[in-house]
């Protein structure tokens, strides 16, 4: 049925009388009750304890255990069939995890082995605590980059590697603590302030920063800047042209092309996901053999070098909670924590939506946080749910977190027996792997989409992007977040006020600009305020309303303004300043001989207005209506009865009935 | 007429057919047009150039001049009659200004004479530029206190008085620059963030801090703490009991009682305003004579001492824009500037509203700012429209800013000839004057009012109060502002979503909690979202909506949920994240076999939804309606035609027609 053409139904004759419905305040609630309700909505909007209601104690205990350890939910009915697919996907992500782990560790200026450590313990922890079935856990490029750059500002990883490592672990510890407490304190909504627009801009910027860092290994430069920004890196690249090694460059280009091709294949044909998934490991193997064969390191191709064997050594003794660097590690922990958390949660939500199950944000935060706390005491640096890895995991048909366990076992085997093989792996290939991985973070279509829909969001995105490239990762982010928060505040300080008109033949009143057919009603000025009224906007609202009135007075035919109707359906809240706004407005209007009428004030608003009313009545039942239609109708009938000359406005109304 | 009982009008029979009106996007505007409109609403809501429209060039020039120098508006038609009342009020406030000036200067740890200087030049400047007729200009207690305390944290006024004076003048200069630029850049709304609640708490706190500082002179203590907080002051008071001088205390009590009595008299009988207005000068004269007679200073009563004669020396050469203290003076300027600005604007608005004329906030800021810039180069420290003084001014019948000129001339005469008389004025009396002045800032009834209307505002007020008393003036303020801003953000991150029901016998849908008679319609879940939808709240909205639905499913009789209607009249804005929210919600609902229906999306919202729709249609005309009534009606008719079993909901609807 096409709504615009009228569908006439069996219509019968009814005797309509103009009835006026009253605005009533909501049923009384004590301050404590309100406070409780508010608290619940703020911190427990998902109502996690719902499932416990009306269960036996025994059942409650089981549910509780399952709530804390999701593995107890799906573990019991885990089948061999599920394991098969988990096994395949586990091996696949392992083949990606090993080279990525080594590369990202280098990105964070940490020994390559730490990257592998971080792909061993954390996945096991997540498998027990995590509620996502697709998340593949491990170190990620952005968090690695940020941690490396922040720590490097105060400690040199080359001059004092031990201290640097200690600080990295301590930062990881704080990141974990911070993430877990966000979840426990139910403050998960804080990460919502990293809006989609910000993330797109930030990720693109970070991708470029990361790729720039790879120029060191891709060009085989030995003296490279410690800074991250576009300008310093570029200058250091072109001031060291004499260091460029053509062998390295050649090798780099070859593998870069190989990896990018593999990526394209998998993008074109999702069934061939394993091509891009396997490519990194393959290129590591090939390049290693190549270097070993041609004694590449003699031709200026730098290699990883010796890596000690064995699984993660305990690192609890390496956490430093004292001394000069405490501030630094806490700051680093906070920022890397929130960044990795955002990526982890976003990835988790994405795949949950894809496969139609729910992940509990706050629970995920606790899982990820705990994972990092454990990691920090087992020689791992900050880890989270990695986007690229999880995508591969999902494509490879992972069914449960068991794929994480398979991956971590594979990594363990590598750590125990296969480390010597990596001795001749050239750094240039690791660089190529990173570049290929992060290029996927640049999402042009999304940027265009944002431009089309919301220009301001686009600006925020650009700010994040250029901020990250030219200033610094954390500052760029901070500015972008500040800007988008400022926009929200601006919407409050400058709320929209629109003039409503009557849509002919109905009782519907709508925005005059939007609905051209809507018509003014002489003697009435009908305004709709579209924001909570509070200290931040009463001055503006006052000036704006007075301007509406003055503009009225200038129009001759409307000069006989009698009533101002404020449609308050959109005023969701009000504070003491808001109350005083109405009081002042009313007195100003009385001086002009205009009466103030309120329509449909919502629960909280009418409640407060009535409370404030006890001392001075500016809310009487005859200037308070439930709908604009009723207000206009009853007021114009009074106008009629009062004034001898009857306005057309009233006529139309009466005609309508 | 009583609205609740139905007023039956001439009702005639009409043949109603169920008509469905379409939601239309607003007429096309280019990004630039939108941007301009937004800019205007943000920075020129009062539309200051309105009066210039359609005037001759000549007239425009005159209007322009009058706009910059309000004195040109009222000057020409100034009469002797007006002058008489201005003269009286001018003298009255002068008698208050002289002792207050001396006292407040001491409060700011500045030489007393500076207080008099500051009551001479600034009033003249304001008389030319200011647009308020009642504002009496001069130094004020709070700004003096804050400036004194902030500067004293880094420089001792006793050890290095010259440097301290230079910093005070420089801070005043920056305060003026800051105030003026706020006005010029039309950023006046920034001071709105000091809400009424904050100011009440802050003023009360400041009053107590100021009074505590007076214990030094009231008890005659010589070794007094440099700090402001309650605890340090109290401890220093009781650690120096041996320094207390009974003569000083006795004198202090006498004059304190005298002044408080005078204040009471004027509060009881506003006609006797001159009693409290004159009291300070009277007590200064009496106490001075007394001390002179009994050689008080020999009995341990400390006096002001010699004051040099003559009017303001130029102080341009004393402004320091370099060196270590630049940061300090800028910070001090910023904070004292915003504080004095807030007081000035608030006072101006209050009396303007009282006498029904308008003051232009941004123009006032420019006037006050310029006043302070000039002041800083003529040995004045920060000044503004003082509340107590303006109240007296208004009571004394001031008609124009001429009263300020009269006051400043009187002060000039004092500076030129009467300074020696103040040599024997005891500090204890000045202390008593300050205490009496600031006690008026503690507004208990207002606090109670706030408690009754809005508990959160009350908490903010307490935070400001205790923050000022126990931490520091600027930090206490900052925390309070942060808290109230956080509340606004919380309203956005946790928007209200309420379930609507049909008010029987009407087409009106309202909140089910608020309107008990309203009834659900089976098969429908009607939700109203009461905030802009953006990155900060989509996660919450998603969870909340899903919870609404799950709760539905648990109720057996509603389990046949077919449609979710989102009433969007209160969604004033949306961003790209908001768009994605709708897309995700729609797909989730489709999985549950529920259809998403939108009602009355406002201009901006429908516009963006349609834009986003170009690639994937989730907005079709048959799930987009102008009112809930029409949506329910037409949807239940389709339901009827589809499903063989017809729900009662549809019946009621049909019955209604």
TrEMBL record, chains A, B:
<feature type="transmembrane region" description="Helical">
    <location>
        <begin position="401"/>
        <end position="422"/>
    </location>
</feature>
<feature type="transmembrane region" description="Helical">
    <location>
        <begin position="197"/>
        <end position="215"/>
    </location>
</feature>
<keyword id="KW-0472">Membrane</keyword>
<keyword id="KW-1133">Transmembrane helix</keyword>
<feature type="transmembrane region" description="Helical">
    <location>
        <begin position="110"/>
        <end position="128"/>
    </location>
</feature>
<feature type="transmembrane region" description="Helical">
    <location>
        <begin position="458"/>
        <end position="483"/>
    </location>
</feature>
<dbReference type="InterPro" id="IPR001902">
    <property type="entry name" value="SLC26A/SulP_fam"/>
</dbReference>
<protein>
    <submittedName>
        <fullName>Putative SLC26A/SulP transporter</fullName>
    </submittedName>
</protein>
<feature type="transmembrane region" description="Helical">
    <location>
        <begin position="244"/>
        <end position="261"/>
    </location>
</feature>
<dbReference type="Pfam" id="PF00916">
    <property type="entry name" value="Sulfate_transp"/>
</dbReference>
<feature type="transmembrane region" description="Helical">
    <location>
        <begin position="428"/>
        <end position="451"/>
    </location>
</feature>
<keyword id="KW-0813">Transport</keyword>
<dbReference type="GO" id="GO:0016020">
    <property type="term" value="C:membrane"/>
</dbReference>
<dbReference type="InterPro" id="IPR002645">
    <property type="entry name" value="STAS_dom"/>
</dbReference>
<dbReference type="InterPro" id="IPR018045">
    <property type="entry name" value="S04_transporter_CS"/>
</dbReference>
<dbReference type="InterPro" id="IPR011547">
    <property type="entry name" value="SLC26A/SulP_dom"/>
</dbReference>
<feature type="domain" description="STAS">
    <location>
        <begin position="514"/>
        <end position="635"/>
    </location>
</feature>
<feature type="transmembrane region" description="Helical">
    <location>
        <begin position="163"/>
        <end position="185"/>
    </location>
</feature>
<dbReference type="GO" id="GO:0008271">
    <property type="term" value="F:secondary active sulfate transmembrane transporter activity"/>
</dbReference>
<keyword id="KW-0812">Transmembrane</keyword>
<dbReference type="InterPro" id="IPR036513">
    <property type="entry name" value="STAS_dom_sf"/>
</dbReference>
<comment type="similarity">
    <text>Belongs to the SLC26A/SulP transporter (TC 2.A.53) family.</text>
</comment>
<feature type="transmembrane region" description="Helical">
    <location>
        <begin position="325"/>
        <end position="348"/>
    </location>
</feature>
<dbReference type="Pfam" id="PF01740">
    <property type="entry name" value="STAS"/>
</dbReference>
<feature type="transmembrane region" description="Helical">
    <location>
        <begin position="273"/>
        <end position="294"/>
    </location>
</feature>
